[in-house]
C-alpha cells in the first residue's frame, strides 16, 4: 500500500493576513527606528519622575505646600543649585589641568631623551628616541588644529543640551501630572480590581525608589572611599589635588550601576596623572580593587535588599541592561527586573487561586 499523501492548503485569506502582518511589523520597526531617541528621553523622564517623587512629597508635606506644582518647582530649584555648585567646583580645575597638560605634553615627551628618570633610561636602552620625537611632533600638530573639531564638538554639546532640557521639562510635567494620570487610568478599571492594581503600583513604585536610594548609597560610598584615598595619598606624596571635586565626579557617575564607579575613577586617574604619576598609579590600583569588591559584594547585596531580588539576579539584570541599551539599560535594568518579578509572582498567585477555586 502506498502511504496517503497529506495535502496542505493555504487559503488566499491566510496569505493576505501574513503579508499584512509582515508589512505592519516592518512599518513598526521603521517607526521605532525614527522615534527611538524621543522614546529614550520619555523613558528617562519617567524614571527620574519616579525617583524624584519622594522628594516632592516630602517637601509638600513638611513645608505645607498645597499645590504639587510649587513643591515640584522647589525640588527642581534645589537640584539646579546643587548641580550648579557641583559644576562650579569640578569643571574649572579640570579644564585648567587639561589645558596645562596639553601645553606641556610636547616638552615633557622631549625631556624623555635627556633626563635621568627610569622611563628615560628605558627609552635610551631600547633606542626609542625617534619614536618619542615623532610622537611629540604628532601632538604638536594636533594641538595646532584643535579649532577644527571645535565646531562638531559644539554641535554635539548643543544636541546634548537640548536633550537635557527636554528631559528636564518632561520630568517636571510628569511629576506634576503623574498622580492625576494614574488616578484616571485606575478609574477605567473594574471596581473590584482597582485596589489590587493600586497595590501592584505601590510595590513597583517602592522598587524604583528603593533602587534609586540603593544606587545613591553606593555612589556615596565609592566617592567617600576615593576621597579618603586621595587625601591620604596626596598628603604622603606632597602633591595638591582637588579631592572634593574628583570625589564629586565619582559620586555623579556612581549612579550608573556596575560600571559607573569605573567611569568616574578613570577620570580621577587621568586628573591625577596631570599632577603626579605615582598618585595616578596608586589611584588606578585602588580603583581596580574597589570596583571588584563593589561589583561582587556591595552592588548585588545592597540592590538585592532594596529591590527584593537575589544578588545573582541583580548582577545578571545589570549586565543584560548594559548589553542591550548601554547606559540607559544600566539605569533601568535592575528596577525593571524587580517590577517584572512582582508582576510574575502576582500572575502566578492569581493563577493558583483560580485553580483552587
Give a brief rundown of this model.
It is built from 10 helices and no strands. It is mostly helical.
Structural class by helix and strand composition:
mainly alpha
Mean of residue pLDDT values? 76
**How many DSSP helices?**
10
How widely separated are the two ends? Answer: 53 Å
- What is the tally of beta strands? 0
Beta-strand content bin:
under 5%
Could you describe the 3D structure shown?
The protein is 87% helix and 0% strand. The chain has helices at 12-62, 68-110, 118-125, 129-144, 148-187, 191-237, 243-253, 260-275, 277-307, 311-356. The two termini are 53 Å apart. The chain is mainly alpha-helical and 357 residues long. Helix 8 runs antiparallel to helix 9.
Outline the fold blueprint.
Blueprint: H1 12-62, H2 68-110, H3 118-125, H4 129-144, H5 148-187, H6 191-237, H7 243-253, H8 260-275, H9 277-307, H10 311-356
Helix pairs in contact: 1-2, 1-5, 1-6, 2-4, 2-7, 6-7, 6-9, 6-10, 7-8, 8-9, 9-10
Keywords for this entry:
globular; 357 residues; 87% helix
Amino acid at each position: 500500500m502506498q502511504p496517503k499523501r497529506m495535502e496542505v492548503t493555504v487559503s488566499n485569506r491566510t496569505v493576505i493576513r501574513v503579508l499584512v502582518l509582515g508589512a505592519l511589523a516592518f512599518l513598526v520597526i521603521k517607526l521605532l527606528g525614527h522615534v527611538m531617541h524621543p522614546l529614550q528621553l520619555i523613558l528617562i523622564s519617567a524614571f527620574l519622575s519616579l525617583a524624584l517623587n519622594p522628594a516632592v512629597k516630602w517637601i509638600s508635606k513638611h513645608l505645607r505646600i498645597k499645590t504639587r506644582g510649587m513643591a515640584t518647582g522647589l525640588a527642581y530649584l534645589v537640584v539646579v543649585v546643587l548641580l550648579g555648585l557641583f559644576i562650579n567646583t569640578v569643571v574649572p580645575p579640570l579644564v585648567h589641568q587639561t589645558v596645562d597638560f596639553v601645553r606641556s605634553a610636547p616638552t615633557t615627551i622631549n625631556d624623555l631623551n635627556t633626563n635621568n628618570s627610569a622611563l628615560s633610561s628605558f627609552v635610551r636602552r631600547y633606542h626609542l628616541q625617534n619614536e618619542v620625537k615623532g610622537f611629540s611632533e604628532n601632538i604638536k600638530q594636533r594641538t595646532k588644529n584643535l579649532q577644527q573639531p571645535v565646531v562638531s564638538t559644539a554641535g554635539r554639546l548643543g544636541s546634548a543640551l537640548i536633550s537635557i532640557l527636554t528631559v528636564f521639562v518632561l520630568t517636571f510635567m510628569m511629576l506634576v501630572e503623574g498622580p492625576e494620570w494614574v488616578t484616571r487610568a485606575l478609574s477605567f478599571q473594574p471596581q473590584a480590581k482597582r485596589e489590587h492594581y493600586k497595590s501592584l503600583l505601590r510595590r513597583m513604585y517602592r522598587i524604583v525608589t528603593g533602587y534609586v536610594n540603593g544606587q545613591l548609597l553606593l555612589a556615596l560610598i565609592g566617592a567617600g572611599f576615593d576621597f579618603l584615598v586621595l587625601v591620604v595619598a596626596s598628603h604622603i606624596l606632597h602633591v595638591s589635588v582637588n579631592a572634593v571635586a574628583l570625589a564629586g565626579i565619582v559620586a555623579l557617575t556612581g549612579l550608573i550601576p556596575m560600571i559607573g564607579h569605573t567611569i568616574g575613577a578613570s577620570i580621577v586617574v587621568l586628573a591625577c596623572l596631570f599632577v603626579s604619576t605615582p598618585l595616578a598609579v596608586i589611584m588606578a590600583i585602588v580603583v581596580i580593587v574597589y570596583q571588584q569588591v563593589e561589583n561582587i559584594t556591595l552592588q548585588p547585596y545592597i540592590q538585592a535588599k532594596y529591590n527584593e531580588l537575589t544578588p545573582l539576579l541583580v548582577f545578571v539584570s545589570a549586565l543584560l541592561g548594559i548589553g542591550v541599551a548601554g547606559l540607559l539599560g544600566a539605569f533601568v535594568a535592575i528596577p525593571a527586573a524587580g517590577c517584572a518579578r512582582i508582576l510574575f509572582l502576582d500572575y502566578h498567585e492569581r493563577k493558583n487561586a483560580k485553580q483552587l477555586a
